[in-house]
Amino acid sequence: MEREFDPQSHPVATEPSVAEQVQSGGTGLRVTILTIAMLMPWLWVGLGLVLIKDYRLTILVYELFGCGLMILLSRPKQMALLPMGVPLSRILVSAAIVGIVILGVFKGTSGFGMDWDYFYRQAQATHLSVNGHFWFFAAFIVLLNPLFEEAFWRGAVYREWKELIGVWPANLISSFFFGAWHWVVLQHYCQPMWALFLTFWVMVGGIIFAYTYEKTGTLGAPALLHGLGADLPMVFVVYDCIQASQGVLH
């Protein structure tokens, strides 16, 4: 007599995901993919600012291809936003302190020692001005950019490096590259020494965000700290730079 087919005893093979294939592909493949992923923002942002010359398209290309593509290729189910793991009041107070420091340094150095003529020319070349588009992208930067960047830099890059080399080495290498791609933007609008100075502090911010992610286990806390403590004050910094450059030159 023929035996009936039991589906439970013959499980159907499923195609492994891209992330699972990378996981099983060995350390060399994972390191190669991570390194390429960390360098890709340089390409997308450089393409937007240097070739396309439009800050709006630069933001969109970076978010979609620099962050979004890598998020899809990783393990998005492990990128929970909640629970934040720490009291909301602590995040808000920390963000307020960081924001006040950023704005204080900006005001105390007369706009980071900006060359207003240079900034004005670069802003004009990339269509950076205070208009409807500016406020739309300002809202995008504060509300959505932290989610994209934290999911990519902490939820994907940092987490993958941590599995390979441990917590603090992963924090340092991911934060270095997180800050380094910002240099492409900063040197486009600031003088070289100020661009390097600000890039260093973006790297420090990356270390803080990764530490927060590690301690809380979810992306909600670093994303909120990122948005309110860094991106929101930087919107005001850019706004003041646009207004000041127009006032000085006209």
Describe it for me?
This protein is mainly α and 250 residues long. It has one domain (18-249). 79% of the residues lie in helices and 0% in strands. Helix 3 (55-73) crosses helix 8 (145-165) and helix 6 (116-125) crosses helix 11 (220-249). Mean pLDDT is 88; it is low at 12-19.
Oligomer: single chain
**What is the count of DSSP helices, taking H or I runs of 4+ residues?**
11
Task: Assess the beta-strand content as a share of residues.
Answer: under 5%
Number of strands: 0
- What proportion of the residues is helical, as a percent range? over 70%
Stretches where pLDDT is under 50 for at least 5 consecutive residues are 12-19
Which class best fits the helix and strand makeup? mainly alpha
SSE pattern, N- to C-terminal: HHHHHHHHHHH
Shape: globular
Number of domains: 1
Could you give a short account of the major beta sheet? Answer: none
In short:
With 250 residues, this protein is mainly α.
What characteristics describe this protein?
250 residues; mainly alpha; 79% helix; 0% strand; globular
Helix and strand layout, with pairings?
Layout (H helix, E strand, L loop, with lengths): L17 H6 L3 H26 L2 H19 L14 H21 L1 H4 L2 H10 L6 H12 L1 H21 L1 H23 L2 H25 L3 H30 L1
Helix pairs in contact: 2-3, 2-8, 2-9, 3-8, 4-11, 6-11, 7-11, 8-9, 8-11, 9-10, 10-11
